[in-house]
């Protein structure tokens, strides 16, 4: 019973804080009206948030009545969080403010076989460097969020399995907490990116958002009524390892014919190198633009599988918004229109063609850092 009461108290606190965050300036009475909480409960929560320095009061004269009402707003500088993105070839560390803006970020290359302990030490060193340069003050940091590809136990902060990073059963949250002394939350990169797009990007106002990511991996994430849909193992959306050809190419995961074997940057370059010495995906697209038949074939096949992926996700989840994102989408904006055309002319099931918006990511490479930082803030404000 006490556990249930504690949970309700934490949720009420988070609800009040989110309303002040998104609708400030706002009065206590308006918060009570919107939430259905008693004025006493709202006043208690507001009192705690003021005492802790997260919000402030200001007086404003009401129109017509001449009476002063006390309105609540944010102390913007009172809270920052650290958003981290880990990928096959890089690590990025950013500072996210209370409004969810990425105010500073830095990126470093990382080796494909770099061990988790080394990566964690580099993140901690980069954060310490930012503190020493006074880019952020430690007293304002409420936590660290980390987004990475693969299956993550978001409750324990353990990376269960990441093909792209080559990690298995890594206690990432514990490792980074020991190095930094800060609370660490870990989640799948596309889940935190979808959260960021829902709160700050192209899916504001959407009640059911599906985000697709095409880059070094292939995946999706679903946001339903503002909440991340996770599934039993927090692996909902791992469409990269759905089978599209049981007799197809071997995937890094050990299975044959996985969807991502035909779309990821790594697999495209691997196949391209059987024909020509291609080092980067930019070179592959240059060859396609020069009408090299093998390059045209590879890119066209990838576009077709992307459109098939959109159809499959629309059929499964019936979202009102589908976001096209990832490194390929960011580097080659023309892919969005090409995938959209294939979706509408050939692949999306006809009854559902007008049921959703197909949009580009607005946050691009900032999405994972922003979402990770917001995740850390959300977890912090749930606590008493």
Low-confidence blocks of residues: none
- Helix and strand content put the structural class at alpha/beta
Radius of gyration equals: 23 Å
Average pLDDT, rounded to a whole number, is 88
Question: Please, how many helices?
Answer: 12
Q: What spatial order of strands do you see in the largest sheet?
A: 6-5-4-7-11
Fraction of residues in helix: 40-55%
> How many E strands?
16
Tell me the β content.
15-25%
Tertiary shape: globular
Please provide the ordered H/E string of secondary-structure elements. HEHHEEEEEHEEEEHEHEEEHHHEHHEH
What are its keywords?
alpha/beta, single chain, 5-stranded mixed β-sheet, 12 helices, 23% strand, 384 residues
Describe this structure as you would to a colleague:
With 384 residues, this protein is α/β, with parallel strands linked by helices. 41% of the residues lie in helices and 23% in strands. Strand 2 and strand 3 form a beta hairpin. Helix 6 crosses helix 12. The relative contact order is 0.12. The mean pLDDT is 88.
Describe the secondary-structure layout.
Elements (H helix, E strand, L loop, with lengths): L1 H22 L2 E2 H8 L3 H13 L3 E7 L6 E7 L5 E7 L3 E8 L4 E8 L6 H17 L8 E8 L2 E3 L4 E5 L4 E4 L1 H9 L3 E5 H12 L7 E7 L3 E7 L2 E2 L36 H8 L8 H9 L3 H25 L3 E5 L1 H5 L2 H14 L9 E4 L6 H16 L2
Parallel strand pairs: 4-7, 7-11, 12-15, 15-16
Antiparallel strand pairs: 1-3, 2-3, 4-5, 5-6, 8-9, 9-10, 12-13, 13-14
Helix pairs in contact: 1-3, 2-3, 4-5, 6-12, 8-9, 9-11
């Amino acid at each position: 019973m006490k556990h249930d009461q504690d949970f309700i108290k934490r949720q009420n606190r988070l609800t009040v804080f989110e309303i002040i965050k998104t609708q400030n300036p706002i009065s206590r009475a308006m918060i009570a009206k919107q939430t259905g909480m008693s004025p006493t409960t709202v006043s208690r929560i507001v009192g705690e948030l003021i005492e802790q320095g997260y919000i402030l009061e200001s007086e404003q004269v009401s129109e017509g009545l001449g009476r002063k009402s006390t309105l609540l707003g944010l102390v913007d500088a009172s809270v920052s969080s650290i958003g981290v993105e880990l990928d096959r070839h890089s690590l990025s560390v950013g500072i996210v403010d209370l409004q969810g803006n990425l105010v500073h970020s830095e990126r470093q290359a990382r080796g494909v076989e770099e061990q988790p302990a080394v990566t964690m030490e580099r993140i901690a060193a980069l954060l310490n460097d930012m503190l020493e340069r006074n880019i952020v003050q430690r007293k304002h940091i409420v936590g660290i969020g980390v987004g990475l590809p693969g299956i993550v136990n978001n409750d324990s902060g353990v990376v269960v399995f990441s093909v792209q990073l080559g990690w298995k059963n890594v206690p990432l949250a514990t490792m980074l907490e020991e190095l930094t002394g800060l609370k660490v939350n870990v989640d799948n990169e596309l889940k935190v990116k979808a959260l960021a797009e829902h709160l700050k990007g192209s899916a504001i106002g959407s009640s059911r958002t599906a985000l697709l990511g095409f880059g070094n991996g292939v995946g999706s994430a679903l946001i339903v009524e503002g909440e991340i849909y996770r599934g039993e193992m927090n692996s909902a959306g791992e469409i990269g390892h759905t089978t599209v050809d049981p007799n197809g190419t071997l995937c890094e995961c050990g299975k044959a014919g996985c969807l991502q074997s035909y779309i990821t940057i790594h697999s495209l370059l691997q196949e391209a190198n059987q024909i020509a010495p291609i080092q980067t995906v930019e070179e592959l697209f240059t060859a396609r633009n020069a009408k090299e038949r093998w390059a045209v074939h590879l890119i066209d096949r990838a576009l077709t599988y992307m459109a098939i992926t959109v159809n499959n996700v629309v059929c499964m989840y019936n979202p009102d918004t589908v976001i096209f994102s990832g490194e390929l989408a960011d580097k080659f904006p023309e892919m969005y229109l090409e995938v959209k055309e294939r979706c509408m002319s050939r692949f999306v099931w006809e009854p559902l063609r007008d049921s959703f918006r197909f949009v580009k990511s607005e946050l691009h490479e900032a999405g994972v850092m922003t979402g990770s930082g917001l995740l850390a803030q959300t977890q912090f404000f749930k606590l008493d």
